[in-house]
TrEMBL record:
Any Pfam family: rhaM
SUPFAM superfamilies: Dimeric alpha+beta barrel
Domain of life: Bacteria
Lineage: Bacteria, Pseudomonadati, Bacteroidota, Chitinophagia, Chitinophagales
Organism for this UniProt entry: Chitinophaga silvatica
Gene3D superfamilies xref list: 3.30.70.100
Molecular function per GO: racemase and epimerase activity, acting on carbohydrates and derivatives
Protein name: L-rhamnose mutarotase
C-alpha cells in the first residue's frame, strides 16, 4: 500500500465552498465516481479543508497506476461530467503544471 497526499485550492467564495462540501457528502456522491475510484486501486480516500485549501489523502494498492487512472477517467463520460462540475469550485495551485488540478505533496516529516 502507498499513501498519496495531494493539494488543490477552491475558489475563495464561501457559497461555492459550501456547495463543494455539499457535493462531497456521502448521500450526494455519484456512485459512478466512487466506482471509478475503487476500480483504480484506491482503497481509502479522504479530503480535508482549511480555508480554501484542500488536502486529499489516498491509500492505494499495488494495482494503482496514475496514468491508467487518468486514461480511464478521460474515457468515462460520467467522470468527465463530475470533473466539469467540480471545476466550477476549484482553482489550480499557483505552482501547478498546465492542466494539473490536484498536486502531489512532498512528505517532509514522519514520526
Amino acid at each position: 500500500m502507498k499513501k498519496h497526499c495531494l493539494a488543490l485550492d477552491l475558489k475563495n467564495d464561501p457559497q461555492l465552498i459550501a456547495e463543494y462540501e455539499n457535493w462531497h457528502k456521502s448521500e450526494n456522491g455519484w456512485p459512478e465516481i466512487r466506482k471509478s475510484i475503487v476500480d483504480a486501486g484506491i482503497i481509502e480516500m479522504e479530503i480535508y479543508r482549511t480555508g480554501n485549501r484542500l488536502m486529499m489523502i489516498m491509500v492505494t494498492d499495488e494495482t494503482y497506476n496514475e496514468s491508467a487512472k487518468a486514461a480511464s477517467d478521460a474515457a468515462n463520460p460520467k467522470v468527465g461530467e463530475w470533473e466539469q462540475l467540480m471545476w466550477r469550485f476549484q482553482q489550480p495551485l499557483p505552482w501547478a503544471k498546465e492542466g494539473e488540478k490536484w498536486v502531489e505533496m512532498k512528505q517532509i516529516f514522519q514520526l
